[in-house]
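#onboarding

Welcome to the new folks! Below is a worked example of what a typical request in this channel looks like: someone posts a single protein sequence, and someone else replies with the predicted structure as tokens. Don't worry about understanding the tokens yet, we'll cover that in week two.

Example request:
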Amino acid sequence: MNSAWRHVAVLSALALAACGQKTQNNAENAVKATENAFSNAASATGNIIDNASLALTATPTPQEFIDKAAKSDAFEVAAGQLAKTNGGSAEVKAFGQMMIDAHTKSTAGLKKAAGALKPDATLTSGQNDKLSDLGKLKGTDFDKAYIDDQIEAHEDALALMRKYAGDGTDVSLKAAAKDIVPVVQAHLDRAREIHGE
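Example response:
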């Protein structure tokens, strides 16, 4: 009899251990599912906030749009030139050259689409301050500050292009903005990649 009870006890212990392992696996899976749900919710919330901000932003007039775009392009070209001389990594120097090429092309396309409107590419005081700060840096210090600025500048440019592409009043500029959106998004994605490296 004593032996039979031992078998029952051993089997019970094994069953409980198996349940405990299953419970632990279930708990781990539940934690992972919760983490994924929070991550997805945060991403969705970020998108909702971005879309709401875009919806609340007033659509610029055609002149305001081309002025903002021209200033953005001029800043990108000037910062790109600094990246070529002050950058520490090959990726940052290559990104700087890409900015010079792409934003020179963007300016030409916007000027053509603007027709009789003349863009004002005079940099803002904030842009001049950023260029001045960047000009004082070299190597990895430059790379970090430059890429941080690029992410911010491209987020702003993307919001401007999306807003005008969706709600702009000048048909030619609206089409140009729509064409520029994927280019700006690609630049933003690349800047974020470099930032993460």
